[in-house]
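Researcher: Re-running this chain for the archive, since the previous output was lost when a drive failed. Same request as before.
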Amino acid sequence: MKKIIIYSALVAFLVSCSAPTDKKAELEKLKVQHDELATKIAQLETEINPGGVKAEQKAVTVKTTDAAECVFNHYIDVQGTVDGDQNIAVSPQMPGIVTAVYVKEGTQVKKGQVLAELDAQVLKQSLEEVNTQLALATSIFQKQSALWEKKIGSEIQYLQAKAGKESLELRASTMKEQLQLAKIVSPISGTVESVPLRVGQMASPGMPTSAIRVINMNVAKISADVAETYATRIKNGNDAMVSFPDLGKDIETKLNFTSRFIDPTNRTFKVECKISSKDVELRANMIAYIKIKDYTNEKAFCIPVNYVQSNQSGKFVYVAKQNGNEWNAEQRNIKTGMDYNGIIEILEGITSGEKIITSGFQGLNAGEKVVF
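Model: Regenerated structure tokens:
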């Protein structure tokens, strides 16, 4: 038994000593095989491609569009509100009690039409008194004038009669004008929009509760506030497109007013354009969107913004260039201008007729073969 144990231990010792030697030998054998395989691979590549020509690349499928000159327009989009070209709150010119209201909301009125009247009974009575005095003064003057023509009486009597008559005439005229102030008269033709006055109510000049609003919507104006940034690019006469989202209407017009005043609270200035309301029913304070054209380039290349890529050298697009019977991708550096609504103008780098790659350019490298 003792001999068996000693023998087993000796065998285990010999196996443990020989294991590393076998692994080293196996590693050396594999290295030799690797070198032999590498040599054979190089020989076969030389035999197959003796000129060293690279293997044919797989073509990338792309879509292209031919570059063509277009008219590029840039717009400034702002939100505005609709109002009548004539929108007036007509209030009385003197205080008094309302005695009559002749109109209601929706009434069509003409310029000069009386809308309401105030109590002027005292003035009427005073005018009647003055007219009575005037009638007497006129009669005295006529008689005194007749006597004066016959050289009867003194000149002072004639002049006193004349002055008395003229004074009463002037006083009567003034009172008639005061009576007119008791009437609320429309200064424009249009539609009555609000009538806050009621009979028996006290009305005063300049009070909102005493004003009848009259609007003429035959010509509507659209007003909007524009940021100060665009002050140098917006002028009277700029083309504009007015859109009414609630009506589904677009109307072409021009700016007829550009304010020279910058509001210090929000750094904006006011612009206005006018449109005829014949083709569309407009209401005051309706929302409208104005697209103001502030830039035009009649000879630009227009492409979607997402076709343009950027790197350290600047902006570029991929162009398909023909090389014999093949087409290859060329990275073309470009100079861009303004962009609007997803379209950008190309100022330099593209010529008419070139094929701009519009699809499949993601991950594309310059020089790669392309098909379309």
